[in-house]
Amino acid sequence: MFICFLIISGRQRASIGIYSPRYTERRWPVMRISPKDPRLVSLIGEFIKVYLTRVRNRDEDTIVSYRYSINLFIEYLGTQKGVSLLTLQTSDFNQANIIDFMLWLKTERKNVATTINHRLSDIRGFCHYLLKKKALTPDEFEEIREINDYDDDRIIEFTWLTTDEVASILNCVDSNRDAARDHFLISLLYESGARINEVLSLKPHDIKPTSNGEADVHFYGKGNKHRITPLSKEIWKQYCGYCDRYHQEKNEQDYLFYSFRNGRRNKMSSDNVSRILSECENELRKKKPDLIHLHSHLFRRTRAMHLYQAKVPLPTISEWLGHSNVETTRFYAKVTEEMKREALHKLSNSDKSVFKDNEVFKYADDEDVLKRLCGLK
Q: According to the UniProt entry, where is the signal peptide (predicted)?
């Protein structure tokens, strides 16, 4: 049995939480209320706590996104339609309200098209669950399904780092208090091309040596999909030195990258990584004022572009990055012929490699690496 209660955030904004004797890990203050549509409240709880988690096996970031989108839609209904949390009904999830919600995101919250479309996708996903539970009729859901995405008319400047700039960043963090940790973290972000949450979710045993002195890193990406990415000898050497210093206890339950809170080791937050990069950016801008903004995803984009510039086939890059569709990777192919020639000239110089024994183009026709990327070995 699910019981609805209110969660009041720091901004005094009400949102939905669900309490059940089976799910007691969240210690939120509980206030019993009587919603107008108790089944809807129950379905929201089941969708987030059971369906997404157990049935669909979605990762934590995806679940947080769905929860935030539903809360945002409820906030919109409250501020614009006068529908409170107590009076919310299944019928409020309709085409007209969702279209107005998208317009509100654009005009009031200044969200871009990609963000609006992401919220639409989340709300549509929840409405599909309501359909499965017969809370919405097929005709009602069809009206919601027909809502078009917003066109993204922004001019996106696609930027990435040069190998020299990556090397400068690594040199910069070498002066940090936790230089060994920060150097290894950024090196791993760049070489693996992984998402920041994938890297921060690693445990020490997720990186394993290979017979040739290199290593493999085992990632569990979106939807907990497993993939293996090769690492160079230099990264394996950094990993060993890092573990000798930061994982002397060899506790397999610890995260590879951690920070101390209340005397305990906790998974390092992406905010901590952003702070490291921000400090580095401020320092490097003293000598290079035109340096692009540094953020964790930039290393993933940079690695993909360096691989593409080195003529690594797109399907291989797609496997490397963990893209579910190679069409996603084709974005990196949208560069001019002049940029291609310039990049090829840069990469033809072995001195331009970030790591001396790590030439990115060596993976272009390496059958052994391809098998590892595809999970065949």
A: none
Q: Which residues contact 206 (CB under 8 A, 6 or more apart)?
A: 217, 218, 219, 256
Residue from 97, 278, 86 nearest 182 by CA: 278
pTM to 2 decimals?
0.58
Residue burial 250-260, b: 16+ Cβ < 10 Å; e: rest:
eeeebbbbbee
Exposure string over 110-124, b if 16+ CB within 10 A, otherwise e: ebebeebbbbbebbb
Domains of the chain, first to last: 3-145 (1.10.150.130), 163-373 (1.10.443.10)
Please state whether beta strands 264-267 and 226-231 pair in parallel, antiparallel, or not at all (unpaired): unpaired
Tens of pLDDT, residue by residue over 34-72, are: 678 889 988 999 999 999 999 998 888 889 999 999 999
Give the integer Cα–Cα distance in Å for 13 and 240.
47
Residue 183 has pLDDT above 90, yes or no: yes
144 contacts 124 by C-beta, under 8 angstroms: yes
Helices (H) and strands (E) in the chain, counts: 15, 7
How is residue 68 written in tokens? 């935030």
**DSSP β-ladder status, 264-267 and 258-261:** antiparallel
DSSP string for residues in 172-191: HHTTSTTHHHHHHHHHHHHH
Q: Give the DSSP H/E element, type plus range, for residue 236.
A: helix 233-246
Mean pLDDT of 318-333: 65
